[in-house]
Amino acid sequence: MSTEMIDTTTGSRPVPELLAEEKKRITPKRPRDYVAWAVAIAIVAPLVWTAVTNENYRWPVVFSYFTTQTILNGLLVTLLLTVVSMALATVLGLLLAVMRMSHQRPVSGLAQLYITFFRGTPVLVQLIFWFNIAALYPHLSVGIPFTHMSTPVNVNAIMTPMTAAVVGLTLNQAAYMSEIIRGGFASVSRGQHEAAESLGMSAFTKLRHVIIPQTMPAVIPATGNQVIGMLKETSLVSVLGVADLLQSAQAIYARTYQTIPLLIVASLWYLIMTLVLSVPQSMIERRFSRSTRARLTPAATSSEPGTGQPAPVATTRESLL
């Protein structure tokens, strides 16, 4: 969709017209604004002062362990768990969302059962369960049904702490991602479905070319929040013995007895990673919010011939067909 350009007095180079909600508002300062600042400073200043002056925080110890090899290795494991689990959960969540919206009752029922189970049980319990799954199924066979072609699988050897962590985090996160994606599907108007069907599109083609592109403004901001949540949830895998960031910090203070400084190190790294992920999330949210408002705002008005009155301009969602 083209953006209307307007001329300026500063030169011949055109600039895009600002939307009404993008223009900066100037509001006068009120006494309550200064009171709010004073209260905020009164709360934060003592906390900062005690963190700086209290020797029990042992900031030199914190800085000495902040970039040790053990901590950095745990940091890489945490990032790897976040990326792999989130990617697999997004794919599985998309499949579950499609199943959830199916008109076939058995298909939608299975998806609803999955979502209910994994959203209704704690993720820590799920991680421990998958780590001990060999107690239920010590040996499995993978092969072609109704034939003698099969390969035995030693579940105890396959389900390592890292594998259990990826499986547990992926299956749990997929339940939440499916609801986010289903909400994005619901935001697409029925007219888009009917237009795609009138062109003879198959269900897969309609999903890939019409539905999914229009769900992005609703899905991406929520997905960014889930990525940050997943980053922090990876700390739970320390109970399985996975050498993530938290477990690496625990391994160090178990032998040095520097419990508080090492917990501060882990907390600072989680905070840094969260802030780093928040920057692209905010940029993506602003981009999709701006593109959505642009589609819903008239780009221009023109006069109807012979009337001198501006003609109505369509402000509905832009068609992708």
How would you sum up this structure, described in words?
This protein has 321 residues and is mainly alpha-helical. It contains eleven helices and four strands. The strands form two sheets. A two-stranded antiparallel sheet has the order 1-2. A two-stranded antiparallel sheet has the order 3-4. β3 (139-143) and β4 form a beta hairpin.
Q: What is the strand content?
A: 5-15%
Number of helices: 11
Q: Radius of gyration, Cα only, in angstroms?
A: 27 Å
Main sheet makeup: 2 strands, antiparallel
Mean pLDDT: 81
| Protein structure class | mainly alpha
User: What gross morphology would you assign?
Assistant: flat
Outline:
This protein is mostly helical and 321 residues long. Helices cover 64% and strands 6% of the residues. The chain has helices at residues 31-53, 59-65, 69-100, 105-120, 123-131, 155-158, 161-186, 190-198, 203-233, 245-256, 259-296, and strands at 5-8, 11-16, 139-143, 150-154.
Question: What are the main properties of this structure?
Answer:
4 strands, 321 residues, flat, two-stranded antiparallel ribbon, mainly alpha
How would the blueprint of this fold be written?
Elements: E1 5-8, E2 11-16, H1 31-53, H2 59-65, H3 69-100, H4 105-120, H5 123-131, E3 139-143, E4 150-154, H6 155-158, H7 161-186, H8 190-198, H9 203-233, H10 245-256, H11 259-296
Antiparallel strand pairs: 1-2, 3-4
Helix pairs in contact: 2-11, 3-4, 3-7, 3-9, 3-10, 4-7, 5-7, 7-9, 8-9, 9-11, 10-11
